[in-house]
Design a protein that fits this description.
Layout lengths: L4 H7 L38 E5 L4 H18 L3 E5 L3 H11 L5 E5 H9 L18 H6 L1 E2 L2 E2 L2 E13 H6 L11 H11 L7 E3 L3 H10 L17 H16 L2 E3 L8 H6 L5 E5 L2 H8 L5 E4 L10 E10 L6 H11 L2 H11 L9 H7 L4 H5 L4 E3 L6 H12 L7 H16 L1
Parallel strand pairs: 1-2, 1-3, 7-8, 11-12
Antiparallel strand pairs: 3-11, 4-5, 6-9, 6-10, 6-11
Helix pairs in contact: 2-13, 8-9, 16-17
């Protein structure tokens, strides 16, 4: 999928979407697709210590999670230890195959269906006392066959990042912040100079897909059973993006010699970019002199739209102490703890009860959280990562390509994994 975010994880406090990529290849009983837990349906319970496996964005996240787990362990009396994976999907698969997985771990959206399908995961989401507090779109991202598998740990959305110095230089004001595609086209043209383009973003679904959402398009239908990539809405979205590119007022970050939109923006090669809230850490660390503001992405013909990225706290079906694991996850996703994580490594809380306080604490980034109401989750079907990777390859040639042909190819590939 949006695998350019693997680089972002090293550069900023990301929500660890960098662990996406491999579909599940191991499991607790490869023929078992029923879920997990004790044979009578109850949660397992024992005196065993809990092992927690994470894919960290950096030292700040590792310390924050380790401290939080240690605090819960001290209060509960259950020993628990945090380990950081070097290759999370692979290490999870190996643990499931051996029958001795970690008890609690990060799970990405594109590995969820595979791990759930082979019985590796405990579908515990509906048992959480705070189950109704999670943003509904996040719950949908971690629901397979109508089962809410795991608690979203945090999330991010995409916004429009504006260089305020470049904005002011061409006489633009707050009243000019684009609210629709026409407005975006207009300001991108005004901001483009011989030294920089008006807008830059990565050549991948994880950025271009926001335009698809704004056109009223999507990758699949609402229940994820049918591919809808070749819809007229998506054709309109890619046609608009192609027009931006061919006008010269927008460019893919790779065509500017930048690894991602944040680099193009930070180095002054673009006056605007489309990125997630992780960009704040990258700009603070790498480009502290760049003044910027964050706005919601402009609406398209289908209304407002953006993409969201998230991981969940998975619990192993083979865990001998699921009861304690669920209790730990409830603590890790509590309001106070999520706000502490947000302060420590820059993520957004996945629960609605923490939203107002987070926006009060981070007013300059409020647009990211306000976008949750119209955010689309990325595909979570088994095999979707490979399809999106191929889609990304075709999107890189969009400026000279045929939007309809690109989408028809992606449609055929997605149809194949749904059959």
């Amino acid at each position: 999928m949006q695998r350019r975010t693997t680089r972002l994880a090293a550069a900023a406090a990301l929500t660890t979407i960098s662990v996406l990529g491999l579909t599940a290849c191991g499991g607790s009983g490869f023929s078992d697709t029923s879920g997990g837990g004790a044979s009578d349906g109850a949660l397992t319970s024992s005196d065993d210590a809990l092992s927690v496996l994470i894919g960290s964005s950096g030292d700040a996240e590792t310390k924050a999670v380790t401290d939080a787990v240690a605090s819960w362990s001290s209060d509960s009396g259950t020993d628990a230890e945090v380990s950081v994976a070097s290759d999370l999907p692979q290490q999870l698969s190996q643990g499931f195959a051996s029958g001795k997985p970690a008890d609690v771990f990060y799970v990405s959206t594109d590995t969820l269906a595979g791990f759930a399908g082979n019985g590796s995961l405990l579908p515990y989401g509906d048992q959480l006392t705070n189950a109704d507090d999670f943003f509904p779109t996040l719950v949908q991202s971690f629901t397979v066959d109508d089962q809410f598998y795991c608690a979203p740990k945090d999330f991010s959305t995409l916004g429009l990042i504006i260089n305020t110095d470049m904005w002011a230089e061409v006489g633009l004001t707050d009243a000019d912040v684009p609210t629709d595609w026409d407005g975006l086209t207009d300001v991108a043209a005004k901001l483009t100079t011989a030294d920089h383009v008006g807008l830059a973003f990565s050549p991948e679904y994880a950025r271009v897909g926001a335009f698809m959402a704004q056109a009223g398009g999507s990758v699949t239908n609402d229940d994820g059973t049918e591919a809808t990539l070749d819809s007229s809405e998506n054709v309109e979205a890619l046609t608009y993006v192609k027009e931006l590119l061919t006008s010269g007022d927008a460019a893919f970050s790779s065509d500017l010699g930048a690894g991602w939109g944040g680099e193009a923006f930070g180095t002054g090669k673009a006056a605007m970019t489309i990125e997630g809230n992780w960009i704040s850490g990258a700009l603070t660390n790498d480009y502290p002199d760049v003044a910027y503001q964050v706005a919601e992405l402009p609406a398209g013909p289908g209304g407002q739209g953006t993409l969201q990225f998230t991981n969940c706290w998975g619990i192993a079906a083979d865990s001998p102490n699921q009861e304690a694991a669920v209790a730990l996850v409830e603590q890790l996703t509590s309001t106070d703890q999520q706000l502490a994580f947000a302060d420590a490594f820059g993520v957004m809380p996945s629960i609605q009860s923490a939203a107002d306080q987070w926006k009060t604490d981070n007013p300059e980034q409020a647009a990211f959280l306000d976008s949750a109401d119209f955010a689309q989750g990325v595909p979570n079907q088994d095999g979707s990562a490979a399809v999106i990777s191929d889609f990304n390859s075709q999107l890189s040639g969009l400026e000279d390509g045929d939007p309809k042909a690109i989408l028809e190819s992606a449609q055929a590939n997605f149809d194949a994994i749904l059959k």
